[in-house]
Design brief:
Length: 225
């Protein structure tokens, strides 16, 4: 995709008057590559200066629906909720509070299915990934996060590790994970999707609803927002 975007930019550049000075598009940096991927989803061609950051490219992403605080949900609906035990999860991304309908994956130190599902239209849903609690390899990083933002996912909850956390923290997206590890995942065993998964004392069923913020993670059979 990156090569196609660069070719498109070059064609657009040749079509402009020679008097228009344009900066050279550089694709060697990870930030610029992410910006190019996001620009490819627009209907008009954009000439991108290498200094443009991922955060700038994502500034036009609509603000999501404000989710209720998990504390308020527990006050009002505690008998109907499952609450994750221990709050061992850390928050990443600009959206510390997020929620939506659950989509599930079960995988272990392999993430092809994570990328594949987040490449689909998200419609404000939350991907819950049972990574077996492993912190040895990251199941999620900045490139996959950019896909998730572009495709309208509300967030991800990963029972495992992520990487590129500094970049992810600048994205309009919600992430809960156990921690970080710079080592990328394997690509041999994609895992399974749309199955019941359980961790942190909670059972996550596809189609149910999850809400997360800095206080914790709660699950409901029905929407509460």
């Amino acid at each position: 995709m990156q090569r196609a975007v660069v070719h498109s930019l070059r064609r657009a550049t040749r079509a402009l008057p020679q008097s228009v000075a344009l900066p050279r598009v550089v694709t060697s940096s990870r930030t610029t590559t992410l910006a190019l991927l996001l620009a490819a989803s627009t209907t008009t061609t954009t000439i991108i200066h290498p200094s443009v950051t991922t955060a700038h490219m994502m500034s036009s992403v609509p603000t999501p629906t404000k989710m209720p605080a998990t504390a308020d949900l527990c006050d009002e609906h505690e008998p109907r909720l499952q609450v994750a035990e221990g709050n061992a999860f850390r928050s990443y991304g600009q959206h510390a509070s997020f929620g939506g309908q659950i989509v599930t994956i079960k995988c272990f130190e392999n993430n092809p299915l994570v990328r594949s599902i987040l490449s689909e239209p998200g419609q404000g849903k939350v991907l819950v990934v049972d990574g077996g609690g492993s912190l040895r390899r990251a199941l999620f990083g900045d490139n996959i996060a950019a896909l998730a933002v572009k495709n309208g996912w509300a967030g991800v909850i990963i029972y495992g590790a992520i990487r590129d956390s500094a970049v992810v923290d600048g994205m309009p997206f919600g992430v809960k994970a156990l921690g970080t590890n710079p080592i990328k995942s394997s690509k041999q065993h994609p895992g399974d999707r749309d199955m019941v998964v359980a961790f942190a004392g909670v059972t996550f069923m596809p189609g149910h609803y999850v809400y997360a913020d800095r206080d914790g993670i709660v699950v409901s059979e029905t929407a509460l927002h």
